Amino acid sequence: MATVDTMSEASEVGDNSEFTDIIKWRSDEHDAVQKKTFTKWINAQFSKTGKTPIKDMFSDLRDGRKLLDLLEGLTGNTLTKERGSTRVHSLNNVNRVLQVLHQNSVDLVNIGGTDIVDGNHKLTLGLIWSIILHWQVKDVMKDVMSSLQQTNSEKILLSWVRNCTRNYNGVNVLNFTTSWADGLAFNAILHHFRPHGFSWEEVVHLTPVERLDHAFTFAKDQLNIERLLDAEDVAVQLPDKKSIIMYVTSLFAVFPNDITMDDIKEVETLPRHYKVDQDEGHAGLAAETQEVSSTRPETEVDMEVSLDMYQITLEEVLTWLLSAEDTLHMQDDVSDDVEEVKDQFHTHEGFMMELTAHQSSVGNVLQAGNQLIAQGSLSEEEEEEIREQMTLLNSRWENLRVASMDRQSRLHEVLMDLQQQQLQQLSDWLTQTEGRIRKMETEPIAGDLEGYLAQIEQHKVLQNDLELEQVKVNSLTHMVVVVDENSGESATAALEEQLQSLGERWAAVCRWTEERWNKLEEIQLVWQQLLDDQSLFGSWLAEKEKALSEVQTSDFKDPSEINASVRRLANLKEDMAQKLRALNALSDAGQDVMVLLNSPAAAQRIQTDTDLLTQRWDNLVQKLEDCSSQVTEAVSVTGIPRVPEKMVMDTVTTRMEQTFTSSDRELPPPAPPKRRHLDTDGELRRLAETDVAKLLSRLAAWKSSARAAGETPGLKEKLQTLRMELAENEGAVKEVMQKGEKMIERLEKEGLSSEEARSGLDSVLKEWEGCQNLIQDLRNRAQVLEQVAAVQSRLKALDGVLQEPEKWLISTEGFRAKNNQQELQTLKDDCEARIAELEKLQPQVEDLCSQTESLAAEPGAPDTTRPSVTALASRHSTTIQELQTRQKDITTVLSRLAGSRALQQMGSRLNTVSADIRDITTAEQGVIKAQALCAEILQQGQEASKAAEQQAWTELSTAAQDQLSMLKCILGSMKDTEVKREQVERWLNAADELMSRDASGFSQADKQQEEVNQCKELVSEMDSVDSSLKQMRENVTAVQQSSVHGLISWGQTELDDSQRRWDTLSKELLRREERVSDGQERVGNLKKDVAEMREWMIQVDEEFLMRDFEYKSPEELEEALQEIKRAKDDVLQKEVRVKIMKDNINVLNSKTPPGGPDLSPELTEVLLNYQKLCDRFKSKCHTLEEVWSCWIELLQDLDVESGWLKTLEETVQATENVPENTESVSEALESLESVLRHPRDNRTQIRELAQTLIDGGILDELISEKLESFNSRYQELTQLAAARQMCLEQKLGTLRENEVALQTLQMSLTQLDQTLTSYLTDRIDAFQLPQEAQVIQGEIAAHEATLEDLRRRNVGNVAPTVPEGKPVRGGTLLDQLQRKLREISTKFQLFQKPANFEQRMLDCKRILENAKAELHILDLNDTQPEEIQTHLNGCMKLYKILSEVKLEVETVIKTGRQIVQKQQTENPKGMDEQLTALKLLYNELGAQVTEGKQDLEKALSLSQRLQKDSAALQAWMRHTETPLKEKLSTGDMPDDTETEITWANGLLKESELKKSDLSVLMENSAALQALVEGSEARLEDQLFELNEDWDRVHTMIEDWISAVLNHMREVEMFDENLAHISTWLYQTEIRLDEMEKMPAVEKERMMKAVLGELEGMSVRVDSARDQAVILMTSRGPVCRELVEPKLADLNRNFHKVAQHISSAQVSAGLEVRQEEVTDGRSAPLLSSSQIQLFESDLQATIRALEQQEKTHTPDDERLDEEKAVEEVLRRGEEVLLSVPDEDICRRLLLLQTGYKVISCSLNNVSHVTPVLNFKPLSHMKPVKLQY
């Protein structure tokens, strides 16, 4: 509809179509420019941070990741991004961008996340412009805007531009669009600040594009400003404003920006349409980012509007309107796919938001147009044009709005329907899947692994179904819920509930599937591993059973056989000891698998397999014992010495030794062999041997380390480590104890002894308790050591103090020889000071002694501390006594020095007594000095003999007494002041501590009274404190006024500080006492209010909310509703009181000092309870209101339904007698159906309302009565109406069917008539269209039958009428149809006559002859699939031609036969021959093409198969030949020969299979040769090459198998030889040991036998060594690593036995003769220089041999080199005979091996005998012994 209306309106204003197209073009052009400019700006920002640039802004920014990268660079913060690529992740990223912009105060209007994700061009550009505006424009201009107090950034920018370009002619910047198109403005700004950068005159003469390009290039090169604009985009009629502003801002940022208010006023005085918007509430540029224009202030509306301004605004609005119409028109039709509909919905939602945003813009244009018309300054033409433009704009806007609303409604409806269908499909699928899960849960686990794998496959099918359904579930995760006025909160809640239910069911299904898969996978792995282990163990048992059988069947008469049997039994014993653990592990694994499976069938099968293996193990043990007995008997029979017999018995030990080897006590007898407790034995052994032993070892190691740490310093630091280590062992102890308890319980259940396990647990528990006690002892010891360290530290400090007076006593021992009285006085004073210092240390010494006594009682304390402290105390007392003695001695000496100067000295001393007084301590010392001086003066005066002297001494004594009295008075005042100050300080500190509780607060409310008491106590003491302060002031004044110079300022600072604190604290204390008292009173009142409020709430709750109400009549219900409303109002009125109480308590809490009464908990409780009470009253009132509303709504619905029933009854009665015509019946049926549709069917609502009220016991009897009456009447009338509706529908259906039949017949006859007429006109007959003729004939017959049936039913016998009511001429409609049918029959007879037969026959013949000429395409001459495919394509073309012409040929032949038969031609015989020839030609071509097609298809299939199989066979042969060549060339044998044989045999089998593939290839080749002539030679050559390659690979496989088997035989021979030698060596050792106890004769006889055996065994040893050398040198490094240790053991053991034989020969008294074992040659001694010369020759020969391997050497040179190698090898043998050296021997072996390899490669032989037979050092026999 929107499109039609728009086109109609466009036709009315056709004159403006060109104008509209121009506007649309400009809008698109601006968008393109902005896109380009903004993209460059974004890439410029990315280049600063190293980000990847973008290419298409609209697509690259849709996922939000690039936007976040941009904001990271602008804000400097790291922003997280979603990793996914779905729409949900993109929306999250974009929403994160919008959030960051909001945090940075970037206001966005009508820009949402979906707009950016959907790629909305305009809104994406708006978003980027907002970012540019904030970080590019405002950040650059914020300082200037702030200083000028301006908010319009565009106005400031324009002022700056005009100021810069003021002096340039031709540059007049009035805006940011047209003023910049010529490029002069950009260049003027640049030239203003860089006048020497370029010539202005040259720029003026350039074209606009050249000017712009010059400006942008200059800014880039000189100022490093990004080239954001292109000259072609600016040099247009109307450049893009935003792009210009952005670039000018970049210039503004780098140049000085001096702007004055005069510049801004100049911009404000520009003409109206050049001014910048001056909305005070918005910055000018910010308004452009908002698509919705704000309403202009009244002052601006009243201003004059210019026509240019109106045209620009209209242009912008029409541009947007055209774009919006195109957008709406281009939106696709509403889809039937839910995801597409969602996208359409979001797209249209953004479109609607954009529509709303531009509504005010349209209004502004219309308002501006009306204002222009009202001004009266326009001409009539301009006014008429504006009116037409306004009419067009208004009409198009309204059409666009209506069309958008219609599409939105349609999208709403379709989207909700599709989503509901999607939910229903998911629900059905979940129901089906849950049924499958229940079935799978109830299905037991299969009894075997095959069935279990089938269950896993079944579960995989479920997982695949789940993954397929995941796509639909993902679609539901971003489901769209549409809520409008027709669907309230109930619809949303129901949908959310449905989604939640489906989500929970889906999560449950996924969780169950995942958990079951993990369980199935775990069980499969464990079960498969168990079966594999059982299979391997069974194979091992079979192998050992076979070995035992061979031992039992061996010949025990031959000593060598007995020795071999002994070795086999020994090896078997070792293997069985190792495999016993494997059997126990298998039993444990079987139990674990049975527990996991929880299947009786599977458990029984696993148990059976385990029992079978156990039974076979027991039988094997029994066989081992029997075989051991046989060997023992054979040893005794053959007379082998008893030592080997003991060895045999040790070899076949009993099963008890295999099972319990760790126990020293006597073990119970073994269990019966049929069934053994392997599980329990294995676990007990692991517990005893592994767990308990390891744990005890760890605990013992910890205890040893702990004891060691207790004996070392730094115990406190190590104690933490020990505690951590012990805590780590605690878990292991608990685990072992739990396992032990379980093991004991199992042993007791099985009736086995549990003493061993219990003893192990007891030992662990005992050890653990010991560790705990040890750690506690260490902790106590650490504490004691810490205290001892503190005592020793104090002891050391006191010792240092004592050392100084002791040194002083020693240094002043010669004081008696001094005559200087001053020095003696100094010594005396120093002595007195030291005595006073030591007396002060007396309490410390006593405290140290007492602490030492207490430490001595502690365990673990060292004994050295106590004597040291005692000695220190003794030294302290001794030193004091010595100092006191020294003081007396010095005094005595001083008295003897009294002389004539004594009086003067006394006077001078008296004058200096008060000189040092500064404080109380010095005053006390001054008094003491004065007292001593008085005593001395008195003594001196008594000793004076002359009267004058006595008089002088008396006067001096009086002066001294006066001085002493004054000092005592001063000291008394000072001490009194100090006492008073302490009292004042004590009070001040107490007050200060009380005041400081404001900061710390009381932690308990019960301490408030204590605070009050403290306040009162301190207030009561204020008078005494004030008195003390006054006394202090008097004393300080007296002391300061004394004649002592040092006390002039004494005590003033302390006095001032105390006075200051007193003044402050006394006032604060009085205020605090008042505040606390007032607070107590207010707290009491508030607590009372809280209690009253709590009691009132309980009373109201019991009165109104706790009782039940019953309503039997509407009056009771209404009365109850009014009552609860009144109660609710009363409760709500209490809110004022609660708020007052809350405010009082809050005020109290704010004023109360910390620690005061806190009523916040009570207040919180009251507020919470009051809120709950209000909510409950509101809920109760709301419930009763809902009930009353339900009752009223029920009555209204019943009235509505009763009215509808009355209407239904009247309609039914009116449709009883209806005329028998379609129109009347249709009207009656429509009237009845319109009533039955009942658009306001309220029955469901009535039932729900009634049921709700009845369930609540409200008016149940009254409602039931009304419902019963309504339902009975409703059922009666609806049944009657349904019956009447059915009757009318049947009658109407019959009438319409008859009408349709007549119309259909008439239309069919008309169409048939037209068809026959066209055929006859075009000279087309029935022979040309035989099938069409049959169809037409059938239709005519059908129409005749239809007319007969209609005539029989009397249908259509009524004559049609004209509008005037008169009948139409021609009779009834049925008669007219009958006449029409007769005409058609006549035309059909004419149609049956043939035409153009000869031409059709000639055409068929021509087509067939052309096809015959193309038969050469069937001949093949190439076997390539591509060439065959080309021939097949040509064949298919022929086949298609014959298929297409087949019908025509058959028709021509059939028609011709009829013509010949009817004699319708002049030459019937000639036509018959032509038809026969045509038929034969077609049949011949068809046979040839069909046969050729089959051959070509067969040939193509064979060629493709041959090519594919040949390529596969060649690839296999290449893959197989490469490793075989490498193995055969190197000759190195692998480590695992069995695996290598298996691999080679597999290759051999695979080669046999490939041989069969080769046979198939030959058969296919033969078949292809039969089809393609001349291909025999090429295909045979290809097959010959394949056969040769296969033979070569097959031969290489066989050669490698033969080589590996030969190597295995050689290794076995070597091992057998070693075994024989080892057995002889072992037996010889035993015989030699036994020979020591034999008599001499027997010893001699035995020695001869041993020496004889030694001769033969030496030969065997030489043979074994030769074998070892061959294996090590020619079988690779792996074989060398295997053989070399065995050879070393052989040499060592043989040498040891040879030495033993030599020793035994000497002890037997036989003569020993030594011979060097050589080849009969003596070994000459060589000098060191000769040996060095040989080593250099040997190394040079090796290097030459290596060089020969790389290059080809001529035969004569090679012969010389061979001689040189032989000579070096010969010399090496001589050197080894003289000086045995392993290194020389190794290098000689290397030389010989390399020489053999080269000789083999040159002579093309597989083996070369060594040139020289030298032996390594270990190979040489040291001594040959003879008697």
Report on this model:
With 1827 residues, the chain is an all-alpha fold. It contains 55 helices and no strands. α35 runs antiparallel to α36. 22% of the residues are buried.
Topology:
Blueprint (H helix, E strand, L loop, with lengths): L1 H11 L4 H33 L7 H4 L4 H11 L11 H17 L9 H5 L3 H28 L4 H12 L19 H10 L6 H5 L3 H16 L7 H4 L6 H14 L6 H8 L15 H6 L8 H4 L5 H24 L7 H20 L1 H17 L4 H63 L6 H29 L11 H64 L6 H39 L2 H39 L3 H10 L3 H5 L18 H33 L4 H35 L5 H57 L9 H20 L1 H15 L8 H32 L5 H10 L8 H24 L3 H54 L7 H13 L1 H19 L11 H54 L8 H38 L8 H55 L7 H16 L5 H13 L4 H62 L8 H23 L20 H19 L5 H17 L11 H37 L6 H63 L6 H35 L4 H60 L4 H35 L1 H32 L20 H23 L4 H24 L3 H22 L24
List key phrases describing it.
1827 residues, mainly alpha, 55 helices, 79% helix, 0% strand, disordered N terminus, disordered C terminus
In short:
The chain is mainly alpha-helical and 1827 residues long.
Q: In whole angstroms, how far apart are the ends?
A: 133 Å
Strand content: under 5%
**Uncertain spans, ≥5 residues at pLDDT below 50?**
1-24, 272-303, 640-679, 999-1005, 1361-1366, 1713-1723, 1804-1827
Rg to the nearest angstrom? 62 Å
The beta-strand count equals 0
Give the integer mean of the pLDDT values: 77
Q: What is the structural class?
A: mainly alpha
Biggest sheet character: none
Query: What share of residues is helical?
Result: over 70%
Tell me the overall shape: extended
Instruction: Count every helix, treating DSSP H or I runs of 4 or more residues as helices.
Output: 55
